[in-house]
Specification:
Length: about 650
């Protein structure tokens, strides 16, 4: 009982340490697992491990293969949670780089690492390519904490984030397929095709044919059960077959059922099935998806905490000594400094990414839970089958995980600065509230090359924003969702524009320091508009209009106009005309370089030729004011943005 409680306590403690010091949780988890496992034999009085994952008739948790049943089910739940986060619409916006990274990049890693392991480490071809398949994956649970604390260009962080999410099931599937090749021809495998077919060409042909049939079964049955499970759960929730209080545990039960059933029909197809099931639900209109995702995230944190400590503790000192040599260092150097960059640069040919961005993406490639979990599972099975060199799989993969996580966690920020992808100024804008007014302003800013993200708990508002091509997130400002989102790293301005002053002030108080380093603004309340006193000008978006007046103007005149100015006197006259018009609201001033500032927060104006005033509302006749004209002699046209 003490050991079981200790694993949970130590696991959550490791998660807290990771949060406190802003490092991937996998690092302290593995170190704790190694300490209470193989390292503890050096300091314990009887020479035994403090925590023994496999029961040895004296001490331990799981008899026989029970540990690996637990590992399989836990990884299935973790991959299902990962599938829930895959939004196809967001993937499309990232571009073709992601598709190439998870296809061409995976191929480069697979063959590059396989050949390297064979020639450098002297492993058999089968084990070399199983090792290569296992380290294809990078893993969002490792990459996300690293990127969260590095302000990067949105495209760079998005590529790394989505690669990590999408490549997990791909790496797992490739590992399953290679494992299938090995077991089909192994001494205690599913079928010894070589013996059945005889020696020579017949054996090879029979082996290949049988293996391909097994792989086909895995793919077909995995997809079939995944889609069926996703559809069944979707319908059950939609039709309220499952009561609300059983939603989380009921969905968990169905995930485990789909995993086990799929695995019974085609060995190792359960991993694919749960990923497909998660993707199906993640891209549906399931109203309880957020609640379901929260539950699965919490469960995944607990499972990852337990899993890594158990798996690391299951490694023996002899296993670690197997890979403690110069060959391992050479192999890892090739993986990190040669194979990963080749895969990234080949995958990004013709993309908009710059060379320095490609270098940074090449550097960030830590391996995670799927690699370690499946390596432990497959490695142990192959050792029991007597497969040559199988004892190297688990320690090699764990070493790759530990080295890449430690390397990236400690150097990613420095490398980002060295190669020039570290954002010195955060010019992105977060708008809290997704109303029509917010969408108009966001569209205008986005057209002027500013990264804008709308945040609202109202899904309808977010869907309308997404339809306009805006970045938008369904989130509650009282939760921690936004602080964990790596795609907001370049945000430096916060506009709180909801109709609720309490929410606006809460947004400024909670996120102003993180997302409003360059400026944090809110809408004034109706009471403040009437009194017009004791206002802090530097934090008010408009001194003349509250939410209601903004909404009314946007309803009647849903467009943002731009008027050219070339002197301070003309600027003041035009600005006063806009303020005197009840159907117009001054918003921004834009200089000839495209730099935008809020009008009502400026105390001094430096007007140069080519500057513009942007305002929301009715087109105004400025005929009485001599204003700059375009090259064709016409008045500047308004920038209309209909929402």
């Amino acid at each position: 009982m003490l050991e079981l409680a200790g694993i949970i306590i130590l696991g959550i403690l490791a998660q807290w340490v990771a949060w406190k010091f802003k490092i991937p949780a996998i690092l302290p988890l593995i170190l704790i697992g190694l300490f209470v496992g193989p390292i503890s034999t050096l300091i314990s009085e009887d020479g035994k491990q403090w925590i023994q994952p496999i029961w040895n008739q004296d001490k331990g948790f799981f008899p026989g293969e029970s540990l690996f049943y637990f590992v399989s089910l836990a990884i299935g739940i973790i991959l299902f949670e990962g599938g829930l986060t895959l939004k196809l619409g967001e993937i499309k916006k990232v571009g073709g780089v992601i598709g190439k990274l998870i296809s061409l990049g995976s191929i480069v890693t697979f063959f590059g690492c396989g050949v390297s392991a064979y020639y450098i480490f002297g492993l058999s071809w089968e084990i070399s390519f199983l090792f290569a398949a296992l380290i294809i994956v990078t893993g969002p649970t490792v990459i996300t904490p690293i990127l969260r604390n590095i302000p990067l260009k949105k495209d760079v962080s998005a590529v790394l984030k989505w690669e990590g999410i999408l490549i997990d099931p791909i790496g797992a599937l490739v590992a399953v397929l290679v494992f299938g090749f090995i077991t089909v021809n192994g001494p205690t495998g599913l079928e010894n095709v070589a013996l059945e077919e005889g020696a020579g060409h017949g054996a090879s042909g029979g082996y290949t044919k049988h293996a391909l049939l097994e792989f086909g079964k895995i793919a077909v049955i995995g997809f079939a059960f995944g889609l069926a499970g996703g559809f069944a759960l979707y319908q059950a929730v939609k039709r309220k077959v499952i009561p609300h209080y059983l939603l989380n545990v009921g969905s968990l039960s169905l995930v485990l059922l789909i995993f086990v059933l799929s695995d019974l029909f085609a060995h190792e197809s359960g991993l694919l099935a749960v990923v497909v099931m998660g993707m199906y639900l993640g891209n549906s209109d399931l109203p309880n998806l957020k609640e379901l995702l929260y539950f699965k995230e919490s469960l995944s944190v607990l499972l990852i905490s337990i899993l890594f400590i158990l798996l690391a503790a299951n490694i023996s000192l002899d296993d670690l000594l197997l890979v403690a040599n110069y060959k391992t260092a050479i192999l890892f150097a090739l993986i990190i400094f040669v194979i990963r960059p080749i895969g990234v640069f080949l995958s990004t040919i013709g993309s908009s990414l710059k060379t320095n961005e490609k270098i940074f993406i090449s550097w960030v490639g830590p391996r995670g839970i799927v690699a370690a979990g499946i390596a432990s599972l497959f490695g142990t099975k192959l050792v029991e089958m007597g497969v040559e060199d199988a004892e190297f799989i688990t320690p090699l993969v764990f070493s790759v995980v530990l080295v890449t996580v430690l390397l990236n966690a400690t150097t990613a920020r420095l490398v980002a600065k060295l190669v020039g992808v570290f954002l010195k100024e955060s010019e992105g804008v977060m708008i809290v509230g997704g109303s029509r007014v917010s969408r108009l302003i966001a569209s205008y800013l986005q057209k002027n090359n500013r990264h804008v993200v709308l945040v609202d708990s109202n899904r309808t508002n977010i869907e309308k924003a997404l339809d306009l091509g805006l970045d938008a997130i369904v989130a509650n400002i009282y939760s921690d969702d936004l602080t964990e989102n790596i795609e907001l790293n370049d945000v430096g301005y916060l506009l709180a524009m909801t109709g609720n002053d309490e929410i606006n002030r809460q947004a400024m108080s909670r996120f102003g320091k993180q997302f409003g380093e360059n400026g944090t603004f809110r809408l004034m309340t109706s009471e403040e508009l009437l009194k017009k006193n004791t206002l802090k000008t530097e934090e008010v978006f408009s001194n003349t209009h509250d939410y209601i007046r903004f909404t009314e103007v946007a309803r009647d005149y849903p467009s943002i106009q731009e008027i050219a100015i070339d002197s301070e006197s003309k600027f003041k006259k035009i600005l006063q005309m806009i303020r005197d018009n009840k159907d117009a609201i001054p918003l921004f001033i834009k200089d000839d370089q495209g730099h935008i500032e809020l009008l009502d927060t400026l105390t001094e104006f430096n007007i140069e030729p080519g500057s513009l005033i942007a305002y929301l509302g009715k087109p105004i006749d400025f005929e009485d004011v001599v204003i700059a004209t375009n090259d064709d002699g016409q008045l500047p046209k308004a920038e209309n943005t209909d929402v």
